[in-house]
Specification:
- By secondary structure, this protein is an alpha+beta fold.
- The chain contains three helices and four strands.
- The two termini are 19 Å apart.
Length: 76
């Protein structure tokens, strides 16, 4: 997050468009595995992933959105 924010300042000085980064964090069980037969992709699934994605998509740019469970796990 800090890298993207700092890079945005440099890019703005050069007249380039900034990136808008949003992060969503949740904690919980997930499943992972390799998908594909010819071209392999590693993926992660589960309710924790889905909730983190919803937090990210509804969050403010350049901010980290924490679920109550993630906040408790971090002891903030």
């Amino acid at each position: 997050r800090r890298f993207v924010v700092a890079s945005n300042h440099r890019w703005a000085a050069m007249g380039q468009r900034p990136w808008h980064l949003r992060i969503g964090l949740h904690t919980g069980s997930v499943m992972s595995g390799v998908v594909g037969r010819k071209k392999f992709t590693y993926d992660v699934w589960g309710d924790a992933v889905n909730l983190a994605a919803r937090l990210e998509s509804s969050g403010e740019p350049e901010r980290v959105q924490l679920s109550p469970e993630a906040r408790g796990a971090l002891s903030l």
